[in-house]
Amino acid sequence: MVQDQSSDNSQSPTSSDAPLTANIEPEKSADLADHILPPLFITVAAIILAWLDPVYLQFERRPVETIILNGVGIVLIWLGIFARRRLMMYIGVAVLLAVITFEVSTQPTRLSVPIVAVWPLRIVLVLLVGWSWAFLMRPPRWLGRALFAFALPTLFVFGLWGGPATGAALFGWNVFVPYTNFTPYWLAIDSTGRVYASDASGNLVWVFDEGGSPQGVIRASRAPQVPTPGPGILPNGMVEELALTNISLFPTATPITATQTLSVLNFCGIATDPKDNLYVVDTNDPTGPKILRFDREGMITARMEAPKDYLPTKGCIAADDEHIYMSSGAGQIYILDHAGKIQHEARVIFSPLGITPNGKGELLVTEPNALNKIVISTGEMLTSTLPPPPSQLRVPYQGILVRKNGEILASDWAGNQILRIDPAGEKIIGTIGSRGYEPGQFQGLGGMAEDREGRLYVADWQHRVIQRFTPDGKIDAVWWAARAIPESPSGEVEIEP
Fold first, then answer.
1. Are 40 and 77 in contact (CB under 8 A)?
2. Which residue in 113, 208, 344, 360 has its CB near the most CB atoms, within 10 A?
3. CA–CA separation, 164 vs 320, rounded Å?
4. Cα angle at 132 between 126 and 135, to 5 degrees?
5. What is the pLDDT of residue 21?
6. pLDDT digits (tens, 9 = 90+) for 130-139
7. pTM of the model
8. How confident is residue 495, by pLDDT bands cut at 50, 70 and 90?
9. Mean pLDDT across the stretch 259-269?
10. 167, 428 Cβ separation under 8 angstroms
């Protein structure tokens, strides 16, 4: 009887263990899924993004480097999973998120898309991957609520930031966009690598440091009479903000009324000299065209009379350490000293399309399919025929630059490319860029400039960027800046009383 009772007792716990074991197995399976699903998700996401959007360096795909960087993060994650070291897993996740951020930040984009439509989408993509992984980790309830509370307003803010520009750029939405990329046209570079770019809409000269960061704008149309100081280099958008409070930064030489306006200063060209002075031409001055000179701080230092009966033309001004050079739409070429006094004058048959000194005592002037070399010291001129543009439309060259190596660069506007012409001006030896929407391609060629390292800068007013090329013609960087919408539909700037 005792044995039977013992036997019955021994069987009792065994029978009660069966349902307990059955309950434990699903819990183990759920626990395994909770541990495997989050790292599996971020691993697959990293692989897909690495395949679609690998790291770009110098605008070239780097798939090998992308695989190596992602591989480090993936190995750390799965070693942490199997070794049950959560810290190692978290480090691997941090590595993958950093690599994904690096991948999306280096992606080249269509040049016609404004910057405010690019970065919000890129940032949101990284945040979505990180948030998805965090929620799959089944955080504590309080932490999950905190993540959710942070995610909703963040997405809303990024939608407000980039939504209108994205819709306008990609889908043609007719929405108000308070900011857009600037429209660079003529370029000039000083001895320190600072880049000046005139705005195609007029009035503004943008100032960039050597690294491509916008330093501000010179509002040449607001320059006061010398010696009143101004206008200086002002942060972009500062004037628009102060205008809302009826505050004016600009001194004026004569009293004006609230109904008066400043006419737009349309740039026919800009230039710098070895002393880092900036020159522009103001053809809208009511007393006659003027040559305006600004120092490195953006302060006007001279307002010189332009030659009598001067008519602006494309690429109208250049400068070096001894002279200022101006071309007129009537065909005159003027060689002036730095006080604005005419030293020599020459005449070409057609309206000049570009003007630049070559550093060899000659001034090069282009006209339709012709190159004029003017001896600076005497004004004598030699004309030769340029090789015809390869584009089918045969539109004349619309800009010229002589590089430090003597090579001549000419803008083929019909083909949207830069032609490299031998120093003698006899044959085309190569091209830079082509028509298109990707980095290294053009849609609306503007001015050109070369820095002391031989890098080439090209303005594209339609893509709204400045593109920089290495001396051998390889795309190196793309610069842009965001600008406020014009202060009035006509582009005129109202003067506050």
1. no
2. 208
3. 45
4. 140
5. 42
6. 999 999 998 8
7. 0.79
8. very low
9. 68
10. no
- At which residue do the structure tokens 């001549």 appear? 408
Strand 278-282 and strand 270-272: the pairing is antiparallel
- Determine the Cα–Cα distance for residues 284 and 265; give it in Å rounded to an integer: 7
What is the mean pLDDT of the segment spanning 341-356?
90
Q: Is residue 231 reached through a cis peptide bond, with omega within 30 degrees of 0 on the bond before it?
A: yes
Tell me the C-alpha distance between 447 and 398, whole Å. 9
- Using the structure block, give the residue that is written with the tokens 């979505």: 128
Q: In whole angstroms, give the CA distance from residue 479 to residue 184.
A: 10
Are 417 and 401 spatial neighbours (Cβ–Cβ below 8 Å)?
A: no
* Contact criterion met (CB below 8 Å) for 487 and 243: yes
Whether residue 445 contacts residue 183, with contact meaning beta carbons closer than 8 Å, is answered with: no
Can you say how many angstroms the Cα of residue 230 is from the centroid of all Cα atoms in its chain? 27
pLDDT at residue 103, as a whole number:
95
On the CB side of 256, how many CA atoms lie within 13 Å of its CA? 16
Retrieve residue 22's tokens: 């059955």
Report the relative pairing of strands 441-442 and 434-435 from DSSP bridges: parallel
Q: 322 phi and psi, to 5 degrees?
A: -120, -25
What single letter denotes the amino acid at residue 81? I
How much is the pLDDT for 370?
84
Nearest CA to 383 among 396, 403, 399, 368? 368
| Interval 69-95 mean pLDDT | 94
> 38: exposed, middle or buried (C-beta count within 10 Å: 0-12, 13-18, 19+)?
buried
Question: Has residue 78 got a pLDDT over 60?
Answer: yes
What DSSP letter does each residue of 401-461 carry, written as one string? Answer: EE-TTS-EEEEETTTTEEEEE-TTSS-EEEEE-EESSSTTEESSEEEEEE-TT--EEEEET
The candidate with the shortest Cα–Cα distance to 307, out of 345, 272, 255, 269, is 345
- Output DSSP code: residue 1: -
Give Cα separations from 63 to 53, 56, 57 (angstroms).
Answer: 9, 8, 10
Give the relative orientation of helices 141-170 and 119-136 as an angle to the nearest 10 degrees: 150
Q: How is residue 471 written in tokens?
A: 């001396």
Residue 491, pLDDT score: 40
